[in-house]
Amino acid sequence: MSADTTTPQRDRPAASSAVLVVPADALVIVPIRNVVLFPRMILPLTISREPSVLAAQHAVKTGRPVGILLQRNAEIEIPGPDDLCQLGTLASILRYVTLPDGAHVIVCQGEQRFRVAGYLPGYPFPVATMVRIEEPEETDSEIEARLLRLRERAVEVLQYQPQVSPELLTAVRSISQAGALADLVASVTEIKAADQQRVLEAVNLAPRLDIVLDCLLQRLEVLRLSREIDERTKANIDQRQREYLLREQLRSIQKELGEGDAGNAREIESLRKAIAEAQMPDEVATQAHKELQRLEHLSDGSAEYSMLRTYLDWLVELPWKEPEADRIEIAAARKILDDDHFGLDQVKRRIVEFLAVRKLKPGGHGPILCFVGPPGVGKTSLGQSIARALGRKFVRASLGGVHDEAEIRGHRRTYIGALPGNIIQAIRKAGSRGCVMMLDEIDKLGSGLQGDPSAALLEVLDPEQNNSFRDNYLALPYDLSRMLFITTANVLDSIPGPLRDRMEIIELPGYTQEEKLEIARRYLVARQIDQNGLKDGQIDFADAALLAIIRDYTREAGVRSLERQIGAVCRRAAVNIAEGTIQAMHVEEGALAGILGPVRYDNEVALRTGLAGVATGLAWTPAGGDILFIEASRTAGDGRLILTGQLGEVMKESAQAALTLVKTRAASLGIEVACFAKTNVHVHVPAGAIPKDGPSAGVAMFVAMASLFTDLPVRNDTAMTGEISLRGLVLPVGGIKDKVLAAMRAGIARVLLPARNRRDLEEVPTQAKERLEFVFLENVDDAVRNAMPERALPKAAGALPGEPPDR
Description:
CATH class of the largest domain: Alpha Beta
Helix content: 40-55%
Strand order of the largest sheet: 2-4-5-6-7
Radius of gyration: 42 Å
Largest sheet: 5 strands, mixed, barrel
Oligomer: single chain
Strand content: 15-25%
């Protein structure tokens, strides 16, 4: 690309070019240096002189062509009329671009030769009247002969030049117009600008072809001599002599610069010692010494030297030696788990079993544990406790949002800035091949054009394969079999089946109110006192205050929000103590409103279930269980079902099935069948901005519709869950433990569950079983009988007379 630049300048406002009017028979001139634009050619030009920039901007704004003229003397900064050639090329500006350094680039396409007739004064850029020059159309035997000769010489010259596109050769061979071929060859071959101007000024075809042929013959002779010199040099100096000469030259240069090779020698020797001390396997050590030999023969300023040095640093810093045996004491491990975590008895029992097996069979392949539960229940801290119990180092690798397979397996060394994957990086950070590695948020892995990271984890988490895990950056096997992998997730559905099959799932339920109170006493209050700069005795919480925070200011499965609220109270105490207004603070329930504000959570069940057509369901979310209100209303219409609340397809189908069931049981419910044809039923699930889906709201939808048409309210202390079928059966659903805990947090007294979910009550905490009444449903008639006691329905078939509700 040619340029007229000497000193780059920033764009200046082109106000003057915007108001000036150039006559229709005149042309805006853009002077250029060291290159010539020919007709039919496209050429990018860099301009930075102010007149040239203003001229180009004016042409772009007015949509007019510009005249491209070559400077006679390239050293002149602001050329005058006498400094420019008289014949140039009329061109249109295809594109105008401003670069970050202030230069301006115009992409021009030559259209026609023109000759300057005279220059017009009074403009901030050159403006000239011009005469267009038409392309001659001579065709005789002499022109044809010159055309053939020029084509042969042009192809020969282009073949000598490196990286010539096949399209250019095809164009040279296919052009049949003598003038067009001469212009093209003069433009693409390395001809001086003065010779190119001679070609441009040669309007007649015969002289133009002769000029181009003479320039090509000179260029061809230079290219032939250059190739012969290269071949003779290559024949005289073999590869070994060439390397010797280059090394000698490098040593001489380093000696002149005062650098020498003593530093490199010490560096190489240090790497060789580190390789010997790393206790690498034979295959790895062989590869390390091979790369070290390559490093010795490279200059420390080369890019490959830096890449090899980084690679060897990774090899020597990775832990290769066999890890120490685990020091497992079951009683001490049980104490560590109890000290670090309150509750979670089943989870801690399974971890103790896991540790006992590791103690009895240290070399065995234990399972990959996967802790699944809502946020804030202690999944990550459980992994830290296991590491403490084993006496191993703990390292965490977050997988949330990872969508590139190279994040697991690493990048190949051929890429600039390549690094190993997260697995190898975490091992290097831990400094032990037997560490406890927690792969956090494994359910939030993504996939895209860069591959599927979950597929790369299959090898990492398979005890039969991970003894020879290959990272793309290392390109060597690394034994992961002595490591203990623990994964965490909020949901299981998003984990691919093959990956989930390699892990043992341990579910962590949400905490009950009593467990949260005990956790706050033991851990949260003390931690927030320390984090907020308070000392023991400067603040204490009454149990009633902690219970009020749990009940009125938080509603979650874990304890993170609870800890934040306790931290807010501690900060208020810190402010008062720092100001000197108090020496210590005792927090009672009545003081919370002044610190944390009004109560955030009311008894929604009592407020929202007082009318017919409203039922309370139980839902499962990644953050734990929650209550879900189903509201049904009817208006005069044509029997349509209207669903709102951002419901998914499965939930919509449950509503349709519930309405059908109400219609089929109209007689037993005491509903007139005729009213369905002239009534529109509107079912709404509040919190409409939150997507909802799943079949477990089927029972609640049926009860809400039955309550609507019978005009009998549903008990406001009762919540329910379960899928329904068109036969009226209540089918089992998942997440029973989280749903039951959510009902208890919301103040529910009775929970209606599918009968086939009876076995899931074993996982429900004892406190929840004691505080809640459980009723098990075989069909929807049982649901109506227990949710609306005013409506007495016949006992379901197969039920025992007088059977009390199940607990």
